[in-house]
Amino acid sequence: MQPGPALQAVLLAVLLAEPRGSKGRLLSGQLVCRGGTRRPCYKVIYFRDAFQRLNFEEAEEACRRDGGQLVSIETEDEQRLIEKFIENLLASDGDFWIGLRRLEKEGNSTACQDLYAWTDGSTSQF
């Protein structure tokens, strides 16, 4: 069964992606891997109840409990893939999270890459 129009929020868990040539929407909890079974894999979680909307920390914890993490975008190609998926979302689909956050540390340089870090500990390469 596909998520209905009552869908209130979208959480980006692990990664988001819409498989090439797919018709319709991804099901909540569905895993999608690039090239069929090749990693990286993507997972979408839908929350139908607006009261279940999560802040960043709650979304991160929900992903960890599910064995995943918020997306860490490693390449420009992967970023374009995520952007393509987001472009297909409706306003009624609600919010989504990625695993990038601003570091609030004294002595941060002004270089953009030094101001942000992925929640999995990796650094942005672009």
Automatic annotation (TrEMBL):
Pfam family for this entry, one: Lectin_C
Keyword set includes Iron-sulfur: no
Domain of life (superkingdom): Eukaryota
Localization per record: Membrane
Residues passing through the membrane, by range: none
UniProt keyword annotations, A-Z: Lectin, Membrane, Signal, Transmembrane, Transmembrane helix
SUPFAM superfamilies reported in the protein's UniProt record: C-type lectin-like (SSF56436)
Any one GO cellular component localisation term in the record: membrane
Entry protein name: C-type lectin domain-containing protein
